[in-house]
Amino acid sequence: MKQAKFGTRSIWAGEKEQLAFGATQVPVVHSVSFGYDNMDEWYEVAIGNKEGHIYGRNTNPTVEAFENKIRDLEGAEAATSFSTGMAAISNTLSTFLAPGDRVVSIKDTYGGTNKIFTEFLPRMNVDVELCETADHEAIEAEVEKGCKVLYLETPTNPTVKITDIERMAKAGKAQGAIVIVDNTFATPVNQNPLDLGVDLVIHSATKFLGGHADALGGALVGSKELVEKVYHYREINGATLDPMAAYLLLRGMKTLKLRVDQQNKNAQEIAEYLKTFDLVEDVFYPGLEDHKNHDIAKKQMRGFGGMLSFAVKGGVETVRDFLPELQFANRAANLGAVETIVGPSRTTSHVECTPEERAAMGIPEGLIRYSAGIEDIEDLKADLKQAFAKVEEKASQKS
Ligand SMILES: *Cc1c(COP(=O)(O)O)cnc(C)c1O
Protein backbone atom coordinates (compact mmCIF):
# COMPACT_ATOMS: atom_id res chain seq x y z
CA MET A 1 0.00 0.00 0.00
CA LYS A 2 2.92 2.29 -0.67
CA GLN A 3 0.91 4.59 -2.96
CA ALA A 4 -1.63 5.67 -0.31
CA LYS A 5 -0.90 8.23 2.40
CA PHE A 6 -0.19 7.31 6.03
CA GLY A 7 -3.68 7.87 7.48
CA THR A 8 -5.22 5.74 4.73
CA ARG A 9 -2.66 2.98 5.17
CA SER A 10 -3.12 2.89 8.94
CA ILE A 11 -6.75 1.96 8.25
CA TRP A 12 -6.45 -0.39 5.28
CA ALA A 13 -2.98 -1.98 5.31
CA GLY A 14 -2.57 -5.63 6.28
CA GLU A 15 -6.25 -6.47 6.71
CA LYS A 16 -7.68 -7.64 3.39
CA GLU A 17 -5.69 -10.88 3.21
CA GLN A 18 -7.12 -12.05 6.56
CA LEU A 19 -10.83 -11.32 6.03
CA ALA A 20 -13.31 -14.23 6.00
CA PHE A 21 -17.03 -14.80 5.38
CA GLY A 22 -17.41 -11.37 3.77
CA ALA A 23 -16.70 -9.74 7.13
CA THR A 24 -15.19 -6.26 6.84
CA GLN A 25 -13.17 -6.70 10.04
CA VAL A 26 -10.26 -9.04 10.73
CA PRO A 27 -11.47 -12.02 12.79
CA VAL A 28 -9.92 -13.01 16.12
CA VAL A 29 -8.78 -16.53 15.26
CA HIS A 30 -8.75 -18.37 18.56
CA SER A 31 -7.28 -21.63 17.33
CA VAL A 32 -4.06 -23.14 18.64
CA SER A 33 -3.50 -25.31 15.60
CA PHE A 34 -4.50 -25.43 11.93
CA GLY A 35 -5.48 -28.78 10.43
CA TYR A 36 -4.71 -30.44 7.08
CA ASP A 37 -6.40 -33.41 5.42
CA ASN A 38 -3.81 -33.49 2.67
CA MET A 39 -0.49 -34.75 4.09
CA ASP A 40 1.54 -33.32 1.21
CA GLU A 41 0.02 -29.87 1.67
CA TRP A 42 0.65 -30.03 5.44
CA TYR A 43 4.28 -30.88 4.77
CA GLU A 44 4.71 -28.07 2.24
CA VAL A 45 3.28 -25.49 4.70
CA ALA A 46 5.35 -26.93 7.56
CA ILE A 47 8.63 -26.52 5.69
CA GLY A 48 7.65 -23.05 4.45
CA ASN A 49 7.17 -23.84 0.77
CA LYS A 50 3.49 -22.92 0.90
CA GLU A 51 1.64 -20.14 2.76
CA GLY A 52 -0.45 -21.23 5.71
CA HIS A 53 -0.56 -21.68 9.46
CA ILE A 54 0.49 -24.69 11.52
CA TYR A 55 0.61 -23.82 15.21
CA GLY A 56 -0.29 -20.68 17.17
CA ARG A 57 3.14 -20.17 18.74
CA ASN A 58 4.52 -19.68 15.22
CA THR A 59 1.86 -17.81 13.26
CA ASN A 60 -1.81 -16.82 13.45
CA PRO A 61 -4.02 -14.90 10.95
CA THR A 62 -5.00 -12.09 13.38
CA VAL A 63 -1.39 -11.68 14.48
CA GLU A 64 -0.29 -11.65 10.84
CA ALA A 65 -2.67 -8.75 10.08
CA PHE A 66 -1.08 -6.77 12.93
CA GLU A 67 2.42 -7.55 11.62
CA ASN A 68 1.50 -6.53 8.08
CA LYS A 69 0.03 -3.23 9.25
CA ILE A 70 3.07 -2.14 11.26
CA ARG A 71 5.36 -3.36 8.44
CA ASP A 72 3.50 -1.09 6.03
CA LEU A 73 3.46 1.92 8.37
CA GLU A 74 7.24 1.74 8.96
CA GLY A 75 7.91 1.15 5.25
CA ALA A 76 9.68 -2.15 6.00
CA GLU A 77 10.27 -5.32 4.04
CA ALA A 78 9.30 -7.61 6.93
CA ALA A 79 7.79 -7.59 10.42
CA THR A 80 7.29 -9.91 13.35
CA SER A 81 5.50 -9.52 16.67
CA PHE A 82 5.86 -10.34 20.37
CA SER A 83 3.83 -10.64 23.55
CA THR A 84 5.27 -7.33 24.87
CA GLY A 85 7.67 -4.58 23.89
CA MET A 86 10.26 -6.01 26.28
CA ALA A 87 9.96 -9.40 24.55
CA ALA A 88 10.68 -7.66 21.23
CA ILE A 89 13.77 -6.04 22.73
CA SER A 90 15.12 -9.07 24.61
CA ASN A 91 14.47 -11.53 21.76
CA THR A 92 16.11 -9.22 19.23
CA LEU A 93 19.21 -8.67 21.37
CA SER A 94 19.41 -12.39 22.20
CA THR A 95 19.21 -13.28 18.50
CA PHE A 96 22.23 -11.20 17.52
CA LEU A 97 24.45 -11.20 20.62
CA ALA A 98 26.62 -14.09 21.79
CA PRO A 99 29.28 -14.37 24.52
CA GLY A 100 32.26 -12.20 23.63
CA ASP A 101 30.24 -9.76 21.52
CA ARG A 102 30.04 -6.05 22.25
CA VAL A 103 26.97 -3.80 22.21
CA VAL A 104 26.98 0.00 22.33
CA SER A 105 23.94 1.89 23.60
CA ILE A 106 22.92 4.95 25.60
CA LYS A 107 22.31 5.58 29.31
CA ASP A 108 18.72 6.80 28.84
CA THR A 109 17.07 3.71 27.37
CA TYR A 110 13.72 2.52 28.76
CA GLY A 111 14.10 1.11 32.30
CA GLY A 112 13.58 -2.52 31.27
CA THR A 113 16.01 -2.20 28.36
CA ASN A 114 18.56 -0.67 30.72
CA LYS A 115 18.17 -3.71 33.00
CA ILE A 116 18.93 -6.03 30.06
CA PHE A 117 22.11 -4.05 29.45
CA THR A 118 23.24 -3.84 33.07
CA GLU A 119 22.00 -7.14 34.51
CA PHE A 120 21.30 -9.86 31.93
CA LEU A 121 23.70 -9.31 29.02
CA PRO A 122 26.82 -9.01 31.24
CA ARG A 123 25.79 -12.35 32.79
CA MET A 124 26.00 -13.85 29.27
CA ASN A 125 29.49 -12.40 28.84
CA VAL A 126 28.31 -9.72 26.44
CA ASP A 127 30.33 -6.52 26.77
CA VAL A 128 27.97 -3.53 27.18
CA GLU A 129 29.02 0.11 26.70
CA LEU A 130 26.41 2.74 27.66
CA CYS A 131 27.20 6.28 26.44
CA GLU A 132 25.84 9.71 27.36
CA THR A 133 22.61 9.84 25.39
CA ALA A 134 23.00 13.07 23.45
CA ASP A 135 26.80 12.89 23.16
CA HIS A 136 27.21 11.89 19.51
CA GLU A 137 31.01 12.00 19.58
CA ALA A 138 31.12 9.64 22.57
CA ILE A 139 28.82 7.13 20.85
CA GLU A 140 30.84 7.30 17.63
CA ALA A 141 34.09 6.78 19.54
CA GLU A 142 32.71 3.63 21.22
CA VAL A 143 31.25 2.32 17.96
CA GLU A 144 34.61 2.78 16.24
CA LYS A 145 36.19 0.39 18.74
CA GLY A 146 33.94 -2.23 17.11
CA CYS A 147 30.54 -3.59 18.09
CA LYS A 148 28.02 -6.16 16.94
CA VAL A 149 24.95 -4.07 17.79
CA LEU A 150 24.33 -0.33 18.16
CA TYR A 151 21.07 0.12 20.09
CA LEU A 152 19.31 3.50 20.26
CA GLU A 153 16.09 5.04 21.48
CA THR A 154 14.94 8.55 20.51
CA PRO A 155 13.23 10.51 21.98
CA THR A 156 14.18 8.99 25.33
CA ASN A 157 12.33 8.39 28.54
CA PRO A 158 11.65 10.60 30.54
CA THR A 159 13.73 13.65 29.55
CA VAL A 160 13.00 13.27 25.79
CA LYS A 161 16.62 13.55 24.67
CA ILE A 162 17.22 13.30 20.92
CA THR A 163 19.90 11.31 19.08
CA ASP A 164 20.74 11.94 15.41
CA ILE A 165 19.58 8.69 13.80
CA GLU A 166 21.12 9.22 10.37
CA ARG A 167 24.52 10.09 11.82
CA MET A 168 24.49 7.12 14.23
CA ALA A 169 23.32 4.73 11.49
CA LYS A 170 26.29 5.80 9.39
CA ALA A 171 28.70 5.24 12.27
CA GLY A 172 27.23 1.81 13.00
CA LYS A 173 27.21 0.67 9.38
CA ALA A 174 30.85 1.69 8.94
CA GLN A 175 31.71 -0.92 11.61
CA GLY A 176 29.33 -3.54 10.23
CA ALA A 177 27.09 -3.28 13.30
CA ILE A 178 23.36 -3.99 13.32
CA VAL A 179 21.74 -0.66 14.14
CA ILE A 180 18.47 -0.86 16.11
CA VAL A 181 16.12 1.98 17.13
CA ASP A 182 13.28 1.77 19.67
CA ASN A 183 10.69 4.01 17.94
CA THR A 184 8.00 3.70 20.63
CA PHE A 185 7.96 7.37 21.71
CA ALA A 186 8.00 8.84 18.19
CA THR A 187 5.60 6.37 16.49
CA PRO A 188 5.73 5.87 12.70
CA VAL A 189 3.51 8.95 12.35
CA ASN A 190 6.42 11.17 13.41
CA GLN A 191 9.55 9.22 12.50
CA ASN A 192 10.64 6.30 10.28
CA PRO A 193 14.18 5.28 11.35
CA LEU A 194 14.49 2.75 8.49
CA ASP A 195 14.42 5.68 6.03
CA LEU A 196 17.34 7.19 7.98
CA GLY A 197 19.52 4.13 7.48
CA VAL A 198 18.98 1.89 10.51
CA ASP A 199 18.55 -1.90 10.19
CA LEU A 200 15.76 -2.68 12.65
CA VAL A 201 12.98 -0.76 14.38
CA ILE A 202 11.31 -1.92 17.60
CA HIS A 203 7.97 -0.87 19.10
CA SER A 204 6.24 -1.41 22.36
CA ALA A 205 2.81 -1.67 20.68
CA THR A 206 1.38 -1.41 24.21
CA LYS A 207 1.82 2.36 24.01
CA PHE A 208 0.87 4.60 21.06
CA LEU A 209 0.24 1.86 18.46
CA GLY A 210 -2.56 0.28 20.50
CA GLY A 211 -3.32 3.64 22.08
CA HIS A 212 -6.03 2.50 24.47
CA ALA A 213 -4.01 1.00 27.34
CA ASP A 214 -5.87 -2.31 27.04
CA ALA A 215 -3.41 -4.67 25.31
CA LEU A 216 0.27 -5.57 25.57
CA GLY A 217 2.37 -6.25 22.48
CA GLY A 218 5.65 -5.67 20.67
CA ALA A 219 6.83 -5.42 17.09
CA LEU A 220 10.04 -5.59 15.09
CA VAL A 221 10.42 -4.40 11.47
CA GLY A 222 13.32 -4.35 9.02
CA SER A 223 14.85 -6.46 6.27
CA LYS A 224 13.48 -9.94 5.66
CA GLU A 225 16.88 -11.45 6.39
CA LEU A 226 17.24 -9.95 9.88
CA VAL A 227 13.58 -10.15 10.89
CA GLU A 228 13.40 -13.84 9.99
CA LYS A 229 16.31 -14.57 12.31
CA VAL A 230 14.50 -12.90 15.21
CA TYR A 231 11.22 -14.58 14.25
CA HIS A 232 12.97 -17.94 14.49
CA TYR A 233 14.26 -17.09 17.98
CA ARG A 234 10.78 -15.96 19.05
CA GLU A 235 8.90 -18.96 17.60
CA ILE A 236 11.15 -21.33 19.56
CA ASN A 237 11.40 -19.28 22.76
CA GLY A 238 7.69 -18.55 22.79
CA ALA A 239 7.02 -14.84 23.43
CA THR A 240 4.10 -14.92 20.98
CA LEU A 241 1.53 -12.15 20.60
CA ASP A 242 -1.96 -13.33 21.61
CA PRO A 243 -4.66 -13.10 18.86
CA MET A 244 -7.02 -11.09 21.09
CA ALA A 245 -4.27 -8.58 21.87
CA ALA A 246 -3.39 -8.47 18.16
CA TYR A 247 -7.02 -7.60 17.39
CA LEU A 248 -7.12 -4.79 19.97
CA LEU A 249 -3.84 -3.39 18.69
CA LEU A 250 -5.10 -3.55 15.08
CA ARG A 251 -8.24 -1.68 16.02
CA GLY A 252 -6.20 0.94 17.84
CA MET A 253 -3.84 1.41 14.91
CA LYS A 254 -6.68 2.44 12.62
CA THR A 255 -6.81 5.77 14.48
CA LEU A 256 -3.05 6.08 14.99
CA LYS A 257 -2.67 9.13 12.76
CA LEU A 258 -5.68 10.95 14.23
CA ARG A 259 -4.53 10.28 17.78
CA VAL A 260 -0.86 11.10 17.36
CA ASP A 261 -1.55 14.28 15.37
CA GLN A 262 -3.72 15.45 18.27
CA GLN A 263 -1.15 14.31 20.86
CA ASN A 264 1.61 16.21 19.01
CA LYS A 265 -0.50 19.38 19.15
CA ASN A 266 -1.54 18.93 22.77
CA ALA A 267 2.00 18.16 23.96
CA GLN A 268 3.43 21.23 22.21
CA GLU A 269 0.81 23.51 23.72
CA ILE A 270 1.13 21.96 27.20
CA ALA A 271 4.94 22.30 27.09
CA GLU A 272 4.64 26.00 26.23
CA TYR A 273 1.90 26.54 28.81
CA LEU A 274 3.88 24.85 31.61
CA LYS A 275 6.65 27.41 31.16
CA THR A 276 4.30 30.17 32.36
CA PHE A 277 3.98 28.72 35.90
CA ASP A 278 6.18 29.88 38.78
CA LEU A 279 6.21 26.39 40.24
CA VAL A 280 7.74 24.90 37.07
CA GLU A 281 11.51 24.81 37.06
CA ASP A 282 12.19 23.18 33.71
CA VAL A 283 10.25 21.76 30.75
CA PHE A 284 11.62 19.09 28.42
CA TYR A 285 10.02 18.71 24.97
CA PRO A 286 11.77 18.33 21.59
CA GLY A 287 9.28 20.77 20.04
CA LEU A 288 10.53 23.63 22.24
CA GLU A 289 13.12 25.82 20.55
CA ASP A 290 15.28 25.80 23.68
CA HIS A 291 15.46 21.96 23.67
CA LYS A 292 19.13 21.02 23.37
CA ASN A 293 18.63 19.07 20.13
CA HIS A 294 15.57 20.79 18.72
CA ASP A 295 17.38 21.12 15.34
CA ILE A 296 18.04 17.38 15.08
CA ALA A 297 14.45 16.64 16.10
CA LYS A 298 13.21 19.02 13.40
CA LYS A 299 15.39 17.27 10.83
CA GLN A 300 14.35 13.69 11.57
CA MET A 301 10.80 13.99 12.96
CA ARG A 302 7.59 15.11 11.26
CA GLY A 303 6.02 15.86 14.65
CA PHE A 304 7.59 16.05 18.10
CA GLY A 305 5.46 13.42 19.81
CA GLY A 306 3.05 13.23 22.72
CA MET A 307 5.63 12.83 25.49
CA LEU A 308 7.10 15.58 27.63
CA SER A 309 8.41 16.00 31.15
CA PHE A 310 8.77 18.87 33.56
CA ALA A 311 10.46 19.54 36.89
CA VAL A 312 8.57 21.30 39.66
CA LYS A 313 10.07 23.46 42.40
CA GLY A 314 9.97 21.82 45.83
CA GLY A 315 10.78 18.37 44.44
CA VAL A 316 9.03 15.26 45.72
CA GLU A 317 6.76 17.23 48.08
CA THR A 318 5.28 19.37 45.32
CA VAL A 319 4.81 16.28 43.15
CA ARG A 320 2.94 14.61 46.01
CA ASP A 321 0.58 17.58 46.36
CA PHE A 322 0.21 18.38 42.66
CA LEU A 323 -0.46 15.09 40.88
CA PRO A 324 -3.55 14.02 42.88
CA GLU A 325 -5.21 17.37 42.03
CA LEU A 326 -5.31 16.65 38.27
CA GLN A 327 -8.79 15.70 37.17
CA PHE A 328 -8.16 14.65 33.57
CA ALA A 329 -5.11 12.42 34.00
CA ASN A 330 -4.42 8.89 35.08
CA ARG A 331 -1.61 8.61 37.60
CA ALA A 332 -0.06 5.46 36.15
CA ALA A 333 3.09 3.88 34.71
CA ASN A 334 1.77 3.59 31.16
CA LEU A 335 2.01 6.11 28.31
CA GLY A 336 0.70 6.76 24.80
CA ALA A 337 -3.01 6.23 25.52
CA VAL A 338 -5.99 8.40 24.58
CA GLU A 339 -6.17 9.56 28.20
CA THR A 340 -3.53 11.92 29.55
CA ILE A 341 -1.20 9.99 31.88
CA VAL A 342 1.14 11.48 34.47
CA GLY A 343 3.66 10.02 36.87
CA PRO A 344 6.80 10.88 38.84
CA SER A 345 9.91 9.46 37.18
CA ARG A 346 11.19 8.29 40.56
CA THR A 347 8.14 6.00 40.74
CA THR A 348 7.76 4.96 37.10
CA SER A 349 10.54 4.73 34.54
CA HIS A 350 13.46 5.04 36.97
CA VAL A 351 12.15 3.44 40.14
CA GLU A 352 15.10 1.02 40.24
CA CYS A 353 17.65 3.85 40.56
CA THR A 354 18.88 5.61 43.71
CA PRO A 355 18.32 9.40 44.00
CA GLU A 356 22.04 9.86 43.27
CA GLU A 357 21.81 7.71 40.12
CA ARG A 358 18.78 9.67 38.97
CA ALA A 359 20.61 12.94 39.57
CA ALA A 360 23.56 11.65 37.54
CA MET A 361 21.16 10.89 34.69
CA GLY A 362 19.75 14.41 34.82
CA ILE A 363 16.46 13.29 36.36
CA PRO A 364 15.45 15.68 39.16
CA GLU A 365 13.40 14.18 42.03
CA GLY A 366 10.61 16.60 41.12
CA LEU A 367 10.37 15.41 37.51
CA ILE A 368 6.92 14.58 36.19
CA ARG A 369 6.39 12.61 32.98
CA TYR A 370 3.41 13.80 30.98
CA SER A 371 1.88 11.67 28.23
CA ALA A 372 -0.54 13.96 26.43
CA GLY A 373 -3.89 12.37 25.64
CA ILE A 374 -6.35 13.43 22.96
CA GLU A 375 -8.62 15.47 25.26
CA ASP A 376 -9.57 19.04 24.33
CA ILE A 377 -6.56 21.22 25.03
CA GLU A 378 -8.61 23.88 26.88
CA ASP A 379 -9.57 21.30 29.49
CA LEU A 380 -6.02 20.00 29.92
CA LYS A 381 -4.69 23.54 30.40
CA ALA A 382 -7.45 24.49 32.86
CA ASP A 383 -6.74 21.28 34.77
CA LEU A 384 -3.04 22.13 35.17
CA LYS A 385 -3.90 25.69 36.20
CA GLN A 386 -6.32 24.66 38.96
CA ALA A 387 -3.90 21.99 40.24
CA PHE A 388 -1.00 24.47 40.49
CA ALA A 389 -3.32 26.95 42.23
CA LYS A 390 -4.24 24.35 44.84
CA VAL A 391 -0.57 23.57 45.53
CA GLU A 392 0.21 27.27 45.96
CA GLU A 393 -2.78 27.72 48.24
CA LYS A 394 -1.60 24.83 50.40
CA ALA A 395 1.93 26.24 50.52
CA SER A 396 0.69 29.68 51.61
CA GLN A 397 -1.35 28.08 54.43
CA LYS A 398 1.76 26.30 55.68
CA SER A 399 3.87 29.46 55.81
C1 LIG B 1 6.98 0.59 27.49
C2 LIG B 1 8.21 0.64 26.69
C3 LIG B 1 8.92 -0.53 26.40
C4 LIG B 1 8.48 -1.88 26.93
O1 LIG B 1 7.25 -2.25 26.40
P1 LIG B 1 6.25 -3.31 27.15
O2 LIG B 1 5.19 -3.49 26.13
O3 LIG B 1 5.78 -2.64 28.40
O4 LIG B 1 7.03 -4.53 27.42
C5 LIG B 1 10.06 -0.42 25.63
N1 LIG B 1 10.49 0.75 25.16
C6 LIG B 1 9.85 1.91 25.43
C7 LIG B 1 10.38 3.20 24.90
C8 LIG B 1 8.69 1.90 26.20
O5 LIG B 1 8.06 3.05 26.47
From TrEMBL:
Pfam families (alphabetical): Cys_Met_Meta_PP
Reactions catalysed, as given in the entry: L-methionine + H2O = methanethiol + 2-oxobutanoate + NH4(+); L-homocysteine + H2O = 2-oxobutanoate + hydrogen sulfide + NH4(+) + H(+)
Keyword tags: Pyridoxal phosphate
Name used for this protein in its record: homocysteine desulfhydrase
Enzyme class at the top of the EC tree: lyase
A single GO BP: methionine biosynthetic process
Segments traversing the membrane: none
Listed EC numbers: 4.4.1.2
Entry-annotated residues carrying N6-(pyridoxal phosphate)lysine: 207
Tree of life domain: Bacteria
InterPro entries reported in the protein's UniProt record: Cys/Met-Metab_PyrdxlP-dep_enz, PyrdxlP-dep_Trfase, PyrdxlP-dep_Trfase_major, PyrdxlP-dep_Trfase_small
Organism, as annotated: Salimicrobium halophilum
GO molecular function, one term: methionine gamma-lyase activity
Listed cofactors: pyridoxal 5'-phosphate
Signal peptide as annotated in the record: none
Any one GO cellular component localisation term in the record: cytoplasm
Family, per entry: Belongs to the trans-sulfuration enzymes family.
